[in-house]
Amino acid sequence: MKKYILSLAVVSFFYTKSDACAWGDPDYDYFNLFTQTIIKDKSYLPFLHSYSTRFYTEFNYSQIPDENIASWKQFFNNQLSYAETDYLVNKMSMNDLNDLKKGSPNNSLLKKLGTGFYQKYREGIDYLIEAKYLEPYMRINFVENPDSFYYNRAESNKNATNLDYTKTISALTSLYNAAKNPEIKQRYGYQLVRFNHYTRNYDKALQAFKTYVEPIRLKGAPYFMALDQLAGAQRGLQMNGDANWNFFQVFMNSKSRKESAFVSMKLSDTASFNNIMKRAGNNEEKNMAYFLLGYEDFANPIPLMEKMYDINPDSEILKVMAARSINELERSYLPTYYYASDDINNPVVHNKDSSGKPADQTEIKEVKKEKLSFWDKIVRFFKNLFGGSKSDKKDGGKQSDQSDDELLENPDRIPFYTQNTGFYWSDDKKPTDFLSDLAKFTEKTKGQSKDEFWQIANAYLKFLSKDYEGSTEVLNEIKTSNPEYMEEIKRMKVLNDIVSQPKITAEYEDHLMKNYAEYFIEKKVTTTDSTNSDYNNYYGPVPSTSSFLKDVLANRYYLQGEDGKSFLMSNKLSDLQYNPNSSLVKSVEEFYRKPKKTQFEQQIIAKNMDDVGNIDAFFSLIYGDRAMRTGDFAKAKAYYEKAQGFVGIPRLNYDWVSNDQPNVPHQYTSDEYNGFRNISNLVFGHNVWESFESSDNVSMAAEDYAQFPFIKQNMNKLELADALIQLTKMANGKDEKSAKANQLIGNLLYNTSILGYYRHLFVMDVNNMNGGKFDFWSTKNKTPYQYYYKNFLSTSYIEPDNFDLAINYYKKALAFTSDQEQKARILFQMASAEQGKYYQYEAKNPANIDYSDPKWSEKNDAHEKQMQDIKNQKFRTYFALLKTQYADTEMAKSLMGSCSYFNYFMKR
């Protein structure tokens, strides 16, 4: 395989998750336990931490105060509410205001204010009428580059050049001169600056600011609106340093224009923030410059935060920096998914090519370096965060180096850390160091600042450091009436309580329901409600405190050996169909049959025992299928007798119905395979050609069933098991009939294996095309699940096939038949089963070559040659017999025509 193809395979593996939704947004890859938006000055909300958008957007923009509306509210002597003022200034039509001016208001708000309202605030109303007239034109005219490939906007779009320049300037100047109120006067000055800016009369815009805005000596909202326009004009004149400084002043003093001012600073000066620092003349300006440098720079922010602290430990923007830094750490320490390190050595087999070798494999090589690999870090981190995995347990479930009391106290935790993280660490500076440094900073700052934010931040960092007792002590000391702070404190106390609990007992489950039920009882999710913070219409449920706590409990149950409860914390009963491995199914069933469930088990866990029709039949079918795969047909029959009430493998029809009911359960027709019924007798047949896409009567051919009338043309699984029991009895003889019985049993075992056309039959699948179940696993553990079952649908695992079962039946068939043609057919079937044994060996013996090795290709080629030699020496036994003893048979000649690899093997 080419090296560049391997790179793509590795990248796709890192980012592929196939749960209910395929996550692709880094802002949804962690739990948001620390709420960034608790900062008090909401004007800085866009500058909180985000990877998926340029500015943070997980808030309602109405939270950001608009100083212009506040200024108008004050102008009207607070007769109007903020919302009413916003409506009057930004949404009310010019006609409504003209009606008020005429003394006949028609608008309900203006009627309520009365006709005297205009007389009292004449200058302000007249200004708003003029502003509403100008507003549709207040945009700069677009000048297209003749060489550009930009979309040409419709010529009908209005811009400032559509107004008569002389008349507009004259009118605004007259209105300016006539106004008595200084604020209104300055607003007309703002319009003059803006109009000149948007008509590209940049010099006149600068002059208008000096003539009409500065002399008023007010530094309120109109002033900074005008300053914003002045800076734009300066940028048009290439006065980038001055433009940048004025945008900086707007950023500092405006609440609603910070985002646009920041963008303008970036556009104005490539060295923008360093140059601002040089011009900063007072502590406030220096503090803001430090903030912008820290915001823009992806380096360790603590040195800049120290400088900001020295200026003002109560600075709101210092809290913004801290919130961003905590969020960065949270992303590193608390990702929403963890994957077992062994998972990457499992090539997925969908189909075989004409050679018999699995086609469509995704080969992903494990990366091993002298230091901890990426995967080892994840494994080690999760062990220490959640207490480890069962594969690490010894001596009755305890870790060999930890007592139960120390389950969460390992000091060597390595955080989940990827290239997504914004901070660049030097070789001697790790995320754990940053956590310690930031914790020291918050400890110091909470002693100097009056804002409880720093206590909350310090408590959260103690939580990340696993000092749950210390975190709770800090939280208990906080006295605040801020509702956002109070909610965060409450949440963090819950986190400390649950995460510090090493074992979940029935008594503790009662404690959870008594005190924290709100975090576990699911609310009805409205997928179309854009205001629902728990749901994203594109990505689905948003990771939250509740989902984090469920992960913690799922891990605890897993470590305690309660796999069924662990599974049901994250999955529904019907999900077992996708990976029906026996030990997990047994544990889920044990929970299902548990007689006295706690309230938590009943309301939180058992609710996921969803509708699979007849639950007992569902379990019985899975057990029956497993017995069939192991060749225990009598046991399978006993289970299938209990599974006759099975209503069908629970699948959904993915045809849109409505927003409220997008998917409906699939209803199986009477002649459709549903997991139990409608099985063709071709399951005892053999391949005509290797094609899983074709119908069974095209890919498969029947054997001669004349001697076995109990093999019906169409069977259910109970009838199939009964037929196999009868065949087994007949196979005990030593005649041709016994040989045929053995061959038919061998055929069924091979045909229902990972390589056979009916490979879906005993693994709870509806057809042979779904590739998830057909993996040749190389995991060193019993199963690939190491921490919990949250990623159950992203990982496929069922117990591997035992190809020797089929081979042993074929051996008896070969021994008891005298027909040379039949012997050739049987040997080919045996060789096909032996291929399966090779694929299992190959998966357990990967190359394990460091992909960064400069000799990777050379070593990989050598490994592939070694595997090819082993295949020919140890896994070509029956092909060799077929070649040396039966090459002249018509069957061998026919097989050479239908199987290119066998043809190649026979001729070499």
Give an account of the 3D structure:
The model is unreliable at 1-23, 146-156, 341-388, 391-429 and 527-533 (pLDDT under 50). The longest helix has 25 residues, at 820-844. The protein is elongated and about 120 Å long. The two termini are 24 Å apart. The protein has a two-stranded antiparallel sheet with strand order 1-2. A two-stranded antiparallel ribbon has the order 3-4. α15 (283-296) runs antiparallel to α16 and α20 runs antiparallel to α21. A hairpin with a 3-residue loop joins β3 and β4 (398-399). It is an all-alpha fold and 908 residues long. The chain is built from 38 helices and 12 strands. The chain has a domain at 819-907.
What's the gist of this structure?
Residues 390-413 are annotated as: Disordered. The chain has 908 residues and is mainly alpha-helical.
- Identify low-pLDDT runs: 1-23, 146-156, 341-388, 391-429, 527-533
Distance from N terminus to C terminus (CA atoms, Å) equals 24 Å
Content-based structural category: mainly alpha
Count of DSSP H/I helices: 38
The backbone outline, from C-alpha atoms, is: elongated
* Biggest sheet record: 2 strands, antiparallel
How many strands?
A: 12
| Widest β-sheet, arrangement of strands | 1-2
Query: What do the pLDDT scores average to?
Result: 83
Helix content: 40-55%
What amount of the residues lies in strands? Answer: under 5%
- How large, in whole angstroms, is the Cα Rg? 36 Å
